[in-house]
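Posting for a labmate who doesn't have an account.
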Amino acid sequence: QHLEEFLIENWGQTELGKTFTVFQEDGELTGQQYPTDTGEIDILAVSKDNKRLLVIELKRGRASDKVVGQILRYMGYVRDEVAEPDQEVEGMIIALEDDKRLRRAITMVPCISFFRYEVNFKLVKS
C-alpha cells in the first residue's frame, strides 16, 4: 500500500508520469484500486495520447510467475469493459525482485513488462 500511495502522490516525478496519467472517469481519479469482477487493479493508467491503457500490479517483495495470470485477468477485464475499440491494453509488474520463473513467463507475453523498484532511506542528524 505504501508503494502504491507513493506512486500516486509522486506520479509526475516518475518515469510513468512522462507517458501516462492515472485513469479518470468523469474528471474523478478512479485508477487507484480500480474495481473489476476479478479483483482490484492496483493502478490503471492511460497514455497521454489516449491510445494505451496500462494495468499496473505492485508487489512489495519478490514477484513470482503467479502474478502473470493475475495481471492477464485484469488486462482482459480492461480490454472487454473499459478500453475503447482502438486502445491497446498493456501490463506492468513492479516489484522489489523477480525470479527466473517470472522472467521466463513474461518473455512469452510481450505486452507485459517488469520493473524493479528501489527504496533509499537516509537518516540525517540535525
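Reply:
Got it, the C-alpha cells are right above this. Strands lie at 20-22, 24-25, 28-29, 32-36, 39-47, 52-62, 88-97, 112-116.
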